[in-house]
Amino acid sequence: MEFVQDLLTTFNFIVQGLWVTISVTAVALTTGVVIGIVLAIVRVYGHPFLQIAVIIYSVVIRAVPVIVIIFILFFVISRYVNLSPFWAGALALGFASGAYQTEIFRGALQAVQSGQMIAARAIGMSRLQAIQSIVLPQAVRLALPAWGNEATLVLKDSTLVFAVGVPEILRRAQQVSARTFEPFLAFGVALLLYLALTLITTQALRWLERRYRLQM
Amino acid sequence: MQKQMLIILAFIAASLVMSACGGAPAAQPTQPTAQPTQPAAQPEGKLAQIRAAGKLIVGTSADYPPYESIDENGNFVGFDMDLIRAIGEKLGVEVEIRDMPFDSLIASLQEGKIDAVIAAMQATAEREEKVDFTIPYRMTKDAFIGAGDTTITLNKPEDAAGLTIGAQTGTVQEGWIQKNLVAKGLTPADKVFSYERADQAALDLARGRIQLVLMDAEPALELAKQNGLKVLLITEETAEGGKSIAIPEGASDLKAELDRIIQQLIDDGTVKQLQDKHGLP
Question: Phi then psi for B38, rounded to 5 degrees?
């Protein structure tokens, strides 16, 4: 009975970090999608110079640990732009994820058969129109499974934003553990919350995949 | 069909962003927000800036009870937290506490993200190179502990002369024993025992293999409670240094004011009272 009581108190405290974790992940994934799609298009169809720029971004960002990007954004960039810890952390995760998503969408764009582009141009579409209406919709569908994987990785990377003081699920678990000296209970609750979030995300994406599958 | 899907994706993205904006966690002020009095043209000096903002932003690492932790309701509690609020009251400003990892505190202070750090922090030489420190608000204390049934009584550290004594290797306490007991001929060198960890020394103490252990007072109290040992003497004389508040380098006006307030709180018994409240020796 006492255990149930402890569990409830611990859960009620840690669950307050749930919204922070969801917000950080949502901002990071959204930023990442925008960066990823735009840069992937540039990487595949853009001017050669721009293609090189995208390759540099993608290689450099993927080579740097996410925590370093967070520190750079929070301690260096925000000398000039006033960024709160939340936005510094979430956007840094977004920039990092953007590099991975660029590669995901690039692969997907290249997997769309080149005949699609040629046919679209042949019926009078501009390049941009063809990308927007013919190639991209197919590529996004192809990218979904890999993107779902990236989404769960970003969810777990969201624990890193505590380094700049954003109290997400894991930090709240640490705080409880420091107070109650019951790490098993505290981190157990955190584990269950992450598990639930991951399951919901993967289920939602699986539904999207099925909903928009192309009949070929 | 394709358009429809793009629109749905865009909608999801937009709603995520909007919900995220709404959920951005505000730093928790410890008191109901007092309106900042005047926006003011950037005043000279850190202290004047804090006064103008009406708010002292303090960083801590809230995982070190009884100094700082977070209670079930999400409030910052502990000795350091009560002390910094008392200091804020004397300064006449609101205190806003921010939780972050201990390792990020000094960097945040250097970058001006926070105005001060209170986190049971000692003013070490490495830290002194990066930031400034106030006078210590609490001296580090050591404890002599003995077996539960010991008949030894100590009134001052030197009373330990001649007794078998243990300490952790390389610690300040071991240094004190060597310098003040062994080098002065009060205790023969073969009666001093060095241990890898303090809890191992406590185990030997409980088994009767040594008569005394000298170590940090706070873990000593915990060890004594767990192993049925007796705390014989708590003293500052064997210890070095104390816990200070870190402030940005060169903020001399802020340092002068905080030093004055800390001294005042020590003199009027507030610090002692807070120590007792949180069970600190």
Answer: -130, 140
